[in-house]
Protein backbone atom coordinates (compact mmCIF):
# COMPACT_ATOMS: atom_id res chain seq x y z
CA UNK A 1 0.00 0.00 0.00
CA UNK A 2 1.28 3.50 -0.91
CA UNK A 3 -0.83 5.69 1.37
CA UNK A 4 0.68 9.05 0.50
CA UNK A 5 0.98 8.79 -3.30
CA UNK A 6 -2.55 9.99 -4.05
CA UNK A 7 -2.76 12.49 -1.21
CA UNK A 8 -3.57 15.96 -2.57
CA UNK A 9 -0.45 18.04 -2.93
CA UNK A 10 -0.48 21.40 -1.22
CA UNK A 11 1.68 22.93 -3.94
CA UNK A 12 1.14 23.81 -7.60
CA UNK A 13 -1.04 26.22 -9.55
CA UNK A 14 -4.58 26.21 -8.29
CA UNK A 15 -3.53 25.89 -4.66
CA UNK A 16 -2.21 29.45 -4.38
CA UNK A 17 -4.18 32.18 -6.09
CA UNK A 18 -3.43 35.82 -6.82
CA UNK A 19 -6.60 37.83 -7.23
CA UNK A 20 -6.17 41.16 -9.03
CA UNK A 21 -9.15 43.38 -8.31
CA UNK A 22 -10.04 46.54 -10.17
CA UNK A 23 -12.96 48.88 -9.71
CA UNK A 24 -15.37 47.53 -12.32
CA UNK A 25 -17.11 48.78 -15.37
CA UNK A 26 -20.43 48.28 -17.19
CA UNK A 27 -20.96 45.16 -19.32
CA UNK A 28 -21.89 47.30 -22.33
CA UNK A 29 -21.83 51.00 -23.26
CA UNK A 30 -25.60 51.29 -22.94
CA UNK A 31 -27.77 53.29 -20.53
CA UNK A 32 -29.20 50.09 -19.04
CA UNK A 33 -25.85 48.46 -18.37
CA UNK A 34 -24.39 51.69 -16.99
CA UNK A 35 -27.39 52.10 -14.68
CA UNK A 36 -26.92 48.58 -13.26
CA UNK A 37 -23.22 49.18 -12.72
CA UNK A 38 -23.64 52.64 -11.18
CA UNK A 39 -26.43 51.40 -8.94
CA UNK A 40 -24.21 48.68 -7.43
CA UNK A 41 -21.24 51.07 -7.17
CA UNK A 42 -23.15 53.97 -5.64
CA UNK A 43 -24.95 51.78 -3.09
CA UNK A 44 -21.60 50.87 -1.52
CA UNK A 45 -21.42 52.53 1.91
CA UNK A 46 -17.65 52.80 1.56
CA UNK A 47 -18.08 54.92 -1.58
CA UNK A 48 -20.99 57.13 -0.58
CA UNK A 49 -20.95 57.80 3.14
CA UNK A 50 -24.41 59.36 3.41
CA UNK A 51 -27.48 58.12 5.24
CA UNK A 52 -29.65 56.01 2.88
CA UNK A 53 -32.80 57.99 3.77
CA UNK A 54 -31.22 60.93 2.05
CA UNK A 55 -29.14 59.19 -0.61
CA UNK A 56 -31.48 56.50 -2.04
CA UNK A 57 -34.24 58.85 -3.29
CA UNK A 58 -31.60 61.11 -4.85
CA UNK A 59 -29.84 58.14 -6.44
CA UNK A 60 -32.93 56.33 -7.79
CA UNK A 61 -34.97 59.33 -8.96
CA UNK A 62 -32.34 61.77 -10.12
CA UNK A 63 -28.76 60.50 -10.44
CA UNK A 64 -29.28 57.10 -12.10
CA UNK A 65 -31.91 58.21 -14.66
CA UNK A 66 -30.06 61.40 -15.63
CA UNK A 67 -26.46 60.22 -15.42
CA UNK A 68 -26.69 56.77 -17.03
CA UNK A 69 -27.48 57.81 -20.64
CA UNK A 70 -24.83 60.55 -20.59
CA UNK A 71 -22.14 58.32 -19.09
CA UNK A 72 -23.10 55.52 -21.53
CA UNK A 73 -22.28 57.87 -24.44
CA UNK A 74 -18.90 58.56 -22.86
CA UNK A 75 -18.23 54.84 -22.50
CA UNK A 76 -19.30 54.27 -26.13
CA UNK A 77 -16.67 56.80 -27.25
CA UNK A 78 -13.80 54.78 -25.69
CA UNK A 79 -15.17 51.21 -26.00
CA UNK A 80 -12.73 48.72 -27.55
CA UNK A 81 -13.53 45.73 -29.80
CA UNK A 82 -12.86 43.42 -26.82
CA UNK A 83 -14.90 45.50 -24.34
CA UNK A 84 -14.43 48.21 -21.74
CA UNK A 85 -10.80 49.47 -21.63
CA UNK A 86 -10.59 48.99 -17.85
CA UNK A 87 -11.42 45.29 -18.13
CA UNK A 88 -9.42 44.69 -21.32
CA UNK A 89 -6.24 46.27 -19.90
CA UNK A 90 -6.67 44.56 -16.52
CA UNK A 91 -7.08 41.16 -18.24
CA UNK A 92 -4.00 41.76 -20.39
CA UNK A 93 -2.03 42.66 -17.28
CA UNK A 94 -3.21 39.49 -15.52
CA UNK A 95 -2.30 37.34 -18.52
CA UNK A 96 1.23 38.74 -18.55
CA UNK A 97 1.53 38.31 -14.76
CA UNK A 98 0.44 34.68 -15.11
CA UNK A 99 3.54 34.11 -17.30
CA UNK A 100 5.72 35.77 -14.66
CA UNK A 101 4.14 33.73 -11.84
CA UNK A 102 3.60 30.25 -13.34
CA UNK A 103 3.24 28.58 -9.94
CA UNK A 104 0.25 30.73 -8.93
CA UNK A 105 -3.26 31.04 -10.42
CA UNK A 106 -3.61 34.70 -11.43
CA UNK A 107 -7.23 35.86 -11.76
CA UNK A 108 -9.09 39.12 -12.36
CA UNK A 109 -12.20 40.26 -10.51
CA UNK A 110 -14.08 43.52 -10.49
CA UNK A 111 -15.45 45.10 -7.31
CA UNK A 112 -18.59 46.17 -9.20
CA UNK A 113 -20.00 44.38 -12.24
CA UNK A 114 -18.28 41.40 -13.86
CA UNK A 115 -16.36 39.19 -13.36
CA UNK A 116 -17.55 39.58 -9.78
CA UNK A 117 -15.48 38.81 -6.69
CA UNK A 118 -17.89 36.06 -5.48
CA UNK A 119 -17.94 34.33 -8.90
CA UNK A 120 -14.16 34.29 -9.24
CA UNK A 121 -13.59 33.18 -5.64
CA UNK A 122 -16.03 30.30 -6.14
CA UNK A 123 -14.19 29.19 -9.29
CA UNK A 124 -10.95 29.21 -7.33
CA UNK A 125 -12.61 27.26 -4.51
CA UNK A 126 -13.73 24.63 -7.02
CA UNK A 127 -10.12 24.37 -8.23
CA UNK A 128 -8.93 23.64 -4.69
CA UNK A 129 -7.45 27.00 -3.72
CA UNK A 130 -5.84 26.92 -0.27
CA UNK A 131 -4.03 30.25 -0.17
CA UNK A 132 -5.28 33.57 -1.47
CA UNK A 133 -3.34 36.79 -2.05
CA UNK A 134 -5.55 39.77 -2.93
CA UNK A 135 -3.98 42.67 -4.81
CA UNK A 136 -6.39 45.58 -5.37
CA UNK A 137 -5.06 47.51 -8.36
CA UNK A 138 -5.03 50.79 -6.45
CA UNK A 139 -1.50 51.98 -5.68
CA UNK A 140 -2.86 54.30 -2.95
CA UNK A 141 -5.12 52.99 -0.20
CA UNK A 142 -8.56 54.50 0.25
CA UNK A 143 -11.40 53.05 2.30
CA UNK A 144 -13.62 53.69 -0.74
CA UNK A 145 -11.52 51.43 -3.01
CA UNK A 146 -9.08 48.99 -1.36
CA UNK A 147 -11.12 48.93 1.85
CA UNK A 148 -14.22 48.06 -0.11
CA UNK A 149 -12.42 45.20 -1.91
CA UNK A 150 -11.56 43.67 1.47
CA UNK A 151 -15.24 43.99 2.49
CA UNK A 152 -16.37 42.11 -0.63
CA UNK A 153 -13.78 39.33 -0.21
CA UNK A 154 -14.70 38.98 3.48
CA UNK A 155 -18.41 38.92 2.69
CA UNK A 156 -17.95 36.03 0.27
CA UNK A 157 -15.58 34.07 2.53
CA UNK A 158 -18.01 34.51 5.43
CA UNK A 159 -20.16 31.86 3.72
CA UNK A 160 -17.37 29.29 3.33
CA UNK A 161 -16.81 26.46 5.77
CA UNK A 162 -13.12 26.10 4.85
CA UNK A 163 -11.58 29.53 4.28
CA UNK A 164 -8.17 29.91 2.58
CA UNK A 165 -5.05 31.40 4.14
CA UNK A 166 -5.52 35.06 3.25
CA UNK A 167 -3.18 37.97 2.54
CA UNK A 168 -4.10 41.43 1.32
CA UNK A 169 -1.92 44.17 -0.19
CA UNK A 170 -3.42 47.40 1.11
CA UNK A 171 -1.30 49.75 -1.03
CA UNK A 172 1.97 50.05 -2.93
CA UNK A 173 2.25 53.82 -3.24
CA UNK A 174 6.03 53.93 -2.65
CA UNK A 175 6.97 50.54 -4.08
CA UNK A 176 10.34 50.88 -5.86
CA UNK A 177 9.41 48.71 -8.84
CA UNK A 178 6.15 50.58 -9.40
CA UNK A 179 7.97 53.95 -9.24
CA UNK A 180 10.59 52.59 -11.69
CA UNK A 181 7.79 51.69 -14.12
CA UNK A 182 6.16 55.13 -13.81
CA UNK A 183 9.48 56.91 -14.26
CA UNK A 184 10.26 54.84 -17.37
CA UNK A 185 6.77 55.59 -18.71
CA UNK A 186 7.28 59.36 -18.42
CA UNK A 187 10.81 59.23 -19.83
CA UNK A 188 9.61 57.18 -22.84
CA UNK A 189 6.90 59.81 -23.45
CA UNK A 190 9.49 62.60 -23.24
CA UNK A 191 11.82 60.74 -25.65
CA UNK A 192 8.99 60.54 -28.16
CA UNK A 193 7.31 63.94 -27.76
CA UNK A 194 9.80 66.14 -25.91
CA UNK A 195 9.00 67.72 -22.54
CA UNK A 196 5.94 69.89 -22.08
CA UNK A 197 6.12 73.10 -20.00
CA UNK A 198 4.81 71.22 -16.96
CA UNK A 199 3.99 67.71 -15.74
CA UNK A 200 0.61 67.33 -14.05
CA UNK A 201 -0.01 64.27 -11.89
CA UNK A 202 -3.76 63.85 -11.66
CA UNK A 203 -5.26 61.43 -9.11
CA UNK A 204 -8.89 60.40 -8.68
CA UNK A 205 -10.52 62.61 -6.03
CA UNK A 206 -12.47 61.89 -2.85
CA UNK A 207 -14.86 63.94 -0.75
CA UNK A 208 -12.74 66.16 1.51
CA UNK A 209 -14.55 64.84 4.59
CA UNK A 210 -13.11 61.33 3.94
CA UNK A 211 -9.65 62.80 4.45
CA UNK A 212 -10.83 64.58 7.59
CA UNK A 213 -12.17 61.23 8.84
CA UNK A 214 -8.67 59.74 8.51
CA UNK A 215 -8.41 58.25 5.01
CA UNK A 216 -4.66 58.12 4.19
CA UNK A 217 -5.28 58.43 0.45
CA UNK A 218 -4.22 62.06 -0.12
CA UNK A 219 -1.02 61.64 1.95
CA UNK A 220 -0.13 58.57 -0.15
CA UNK A 221 -0.83 60.42 -3.41
CA UNK A 222 1.43 63.28 -2.27
CA UNK A 223 4.26 60.98 -1.17
CA UNK A 224 4.18 59.02 -4.45
CA UNK A 225 3.95 62.15 -6.60
CA UNK A 226 6.90 63.72 -4.78
CA UNK A 227 8.94 60.51 -5.19
CA UNK A 228 8.21 60.40 -8.92
CA UNK A 229 9.04 64.10 -9.38
CA UNK A 230 12.34 63.51 -7.55
CA UNK A 231 13.25 60.58 -9.78
CA UNK A 232 12.46 62.67 -12.87
CA UNK A 233 14.64 65.51 -11.59
CA UNK A 234 11.73 67.96 -11.62
CA UNK A 235 12.05 71.10 -9.51
CA UNK A 236 9.13 72.69 -7.62
CA UNK A 237 7.15 74.63 -10.21
CA UNK A 238 7.81 72.07 -12.94
CA UNK A 239 5.14 69.66 -11.74
CA UNK A 240 1.80 69.71 -9.88
CA UNK A 241 -0.52 67.28 -8.16
CA UNK A 242 -4.27 67.60 -8.73
CA UNK A 243 -7.47 65.60 -8.14
CA UNK A 244 -10.00 64.76 -10.86
CA UNK A 245 -13.43 63.08 -11.25
CA UNK A 246 -15.46 65.20 -8.81
CA UNK A 247 -18.94 63.85 -8.16
CA UNK A 248 -21.78 65.81 -6.53
CA UNK A 249 -21.78 69.23 -4.94
CA UNK A 250 -19.74 68.85 -1.78
CA UNK A 251 -16.08 69.80 -1.56
CA UNK A 252 -13.61 67.15 -2.83
CA UNK A 253 -9.85 67.00 -2.45
CA UNK A 254 -8.18 70.06 -3.95
CA UNK A 255 -6.64 71.36 -6.18
CA UNK A 256 -9.08 70.22 -8.85
CA UNK A 257 -7.58 69.02 -12.16
CA UNK A 258 -9.92 70.96 -14.47
CA UNK A 259 -9.69 74.25 -12.54
CA UNK A 260 -5.89 73.94 -12.35
CA UNK A 261 -5.59 73.33 -16.10
CA UNK A 262 -7.72 76.42 -16.74
CA UNK A 263 -5.58 78.52 -14.43
CA UNK A 264 -2.35 77.18 -15.93
CA UNK A 265 -3.47 78.06 -19.45
CA UNK A 266 -4.42 81.56 -18.31
CA UNK A 267 -1.02 81.96 -16.66
CA UNK A 268 0.64 81.20 -20.01
CA UNK A 269 1.52 77.51 -19.70
CA UNK A 270 1.25 76.37 -23.31
CA UNK A 271 1.81 72.62 -23.10
CA UNK A 272 1.21 70.13 -20.31
CA UNK A 273 1.96 66.41 -19.93
CA UNK A 274 -0.61 64.64 -17.77
CA UNK A 275 -0.06 61.33 -16.01
CA UNK A 276 -2.59 59.62 -13.74
CA UNK A 277 -0.50 57.50 -11.34
CA UNK A 278 -3.51 56.24 -9.37
CA UNK A 279 -4.92 54.33 -12.34
CA UNK A 280 -3.24 50.99 -13.03
CA UNK A 281 -5.25 50.58 -16.23
CA UNK A 282 -6.66 53.08 -18.69
CA UNK A 283 -10.37 53.66 -18.28
CA UNK A 284 -13.14 56.21 -18.65
CA UNK A 285 -11.48 58.57 -16.16
CA UNK A 286 -8.22 58.74 -18.12
CA UNK A 287 -9.18 58.15 -21.78
CA UNK A 288 -12.28 60.34 -21.75
CA UNK A 289 -12.12 62.68 -18.77
CA UNK A 290 -8.43 63.58 -19.07
CA UNK A 291 -7.48 62.96 -22.70
CA UNK A 292 -10.68 64.43 -24.18
CA UNK A 293 -12.62 66.60 -21.69
CA UNK A 294 -9.69 68.17 -19.89
CA UNK A 295 -7.82 68.65 -23.15
CA UNK A 296 -10.81 70.76 -24.28
CA UNK A 297 -10.80 72.66 -20.97
CA UNK A 298 -7.09 73.44 -21.32
CA UNK A 299 -7.33 74.57 -24.94
CA UNK A 300 -10.50 76.60 -24.37
CA UNK A 301 -8.58 78.56 -21.70
CA UNK A 302 -5.72 79.32 -24.11
CA UNK A 303 -3.43 76.27 -23.75
CA UNK A 304 -1.94 74.64 -26.84
CA UNK A 305 -1.74 70.93 -26.10
CA UNK A 306 -2.49 68.51 -23.29
CA UNK A 307 -0.57 65.28 -23.80
CA UNK A 308 -1.96 62.39 -21.85
CA UNK A 309 0.64 59.78 -20.80
CA UNK A 310 -1.17 56.46 -20.85
CA UNK A 311 -1.47 54.22 -17.80
CA UNK A 312 0.99 51.41 -17.15
CA UNK A 313 -1.54 48.79 -18.32
CA UNK A 314 0.30 45.60 -19.37
CA UNK A 315 3.69 47.24 -19.99
CA UNK A 316 6.58 44.91 -19.12
CA UNK A 317 7.81 47.24 -16.35
CA UNK A 318 4.38 47.19 -14.72
CA UNK A 319 4.12 43.41 -15.05
CA UNK A 320 7.56 43.01 -13.49
CA UNK A 321 6.78 45.45 -10.65
CA UNK A 322 3.44 43.92 -9.66
CA UNK A 323 4.76 40.36 -10.04
CA UNK A 324 7.70 41.17 -7.74
CA UNK A 325 5.31 42.85 -5.29
CA UNK A 326 3.08 39.77 -5.28
CA UNK A 327 6.10 37.48 -4.96
CA UNK A 328 7.28 39.37 -1.88
CA UNK A 329 3.85 38.92 -0.25
CA UNK A 330 3.75 35.22 -1.19
CA UNK A 331 6.95 34.54 0.74
CA UNK A 332 6.69 31.73 3.24
CA UNK A 333 3.78 30.09 1.45
CA UNK A 334 4.45 26.80 -0.40
CA UNK A 335 3.70 27.00 -4.11
C1 LIG B 1 -19.32 58.86 -5.80
C2 LIG B 1 -18.16 58.80 -5.29
C3 LIG B 1 -16.92 58.23 -5.84
C4 LIG B 1 -15.79 57.99 -5.11
C5 LIG B 1 -15.58 58.25 -3.63
C6 LIG B 1 -14.83 57.41 -5.99
C7 LIG B 1 -13.53 57.04 -5.64
C8 LIG B 1 -12.61 56.45 -6.49
N1 LIG B 1 -12.82 55.93 -7.77
C9 LIG B 1 -11.64 55.44 -8.28
C10 LIG B 1 -11.43 54.85 -9.54
C11 LIG B 1 -12.34 54.89 -10.61
N2 LIG B 1 -13.55 55.52 -10.63
C12 LIG B 1 -14.14 55.33 -11.85
C13 LIG B 1 -15.38 55.78 -12.24
C14 LIG B 1 -16.31 56.41 -11.40
N3 LIG B 1 -16.11 56.89 -10.11
C15 LIG B 1 -17.30 57.38 -9.61
C16 LIG B 1 -17.53 57.90 -8.30
C17 LIG B 1 -16.64 57.82 -7.21
N4 LIG B 1 -15.38 57.34 -7.23
C18 LIG B 1 -18.29 57.21 -10.62
C19 LIG B 1 -19.75 57.60 -10.47
C20 LIG B 1 -17.69 56.61 -11.73
C21 LIG B 1 -18.36 56.14 -13.03
C22 LIG B 1 -18.31 57.07 -14.13
C23 LIG B 1 -19.22 58.26 -13.89
O1 LIG B 1 -20.40 58.08 -13.67
O2 LIG B 1 -18.68 59.37 -13.91
C24 LIG B 1 -13.25 54.54 -12.67
C25 LIG B 1 -13.44 54.15 -14.14
C26 LIG B 1 -14.36 52.97 -14.38
C27 LIG B 1 -14.44 52.57 -15.82
O3 LIG B 1 -15.33 51.79 -16.17
O4 LIG B 1 -13.66 52.96 -16.69
C28 LIG B 1 -12.14 54.25 -11.89
C29 LIG B 1 -10.94 53.41 -12.28
C30 LIG B 1 -10.65 55.62 -7.27
C31 LIG B 1 -9.20 55.22 -7.43
C32 LIG B 1 -11.24 56.25 -6.18
C33 LIG B 1 -10.69 56.67 -4.88
C34 LIG B 1 -9.47 56.90 -4.61
FE1 LIG C 1 -31.27 52.40 -2.92
FE1 LIG D 1 -14.36 56.76 -9.06
Describe this structure in words.
The chain is 48% helix and 16% strand. It has 335 residues and is of the alpha/beta class. It has a four-stranded parallel beta sheet, sandwiched between helices. Helix 10 links the parallel strand 7 and strand 8. Helix 9 packs parallel to helix 10 (284-300). The site of one fe (ii) ion has 4 residues, from helix 2. Pathway: Porphyrin-containing compound metabolism; protoheme biosynthesis; protoheme from protoporphyrin-IX: step 1/1. It comes from Arenimonas caeni. One of its GO terms (cellular component) is cytoplasm. Catalyzes the ferrous insertion into protoporphyrin IX.
Task: Using brief descriptors, characterize the structure shown.
11 helices; 2 domains; globular; binds ligand L6N33NVT; iron; Rossmann fold; 4-stranded parallel sheet; 48% helix; Ferrochelatase_C; 16% strand; binds fe (ii) ion; 335 residues; porphyrin biosynthesis
Report how far the terminal alpha carbons are from each other.
28 Å
Number of helices: 11
Weakly predicted, low-confidence segments: 1-11
Largest sheet: 4 strands, parallel
Into which percentage range does the β-strand content fall? 15-25%
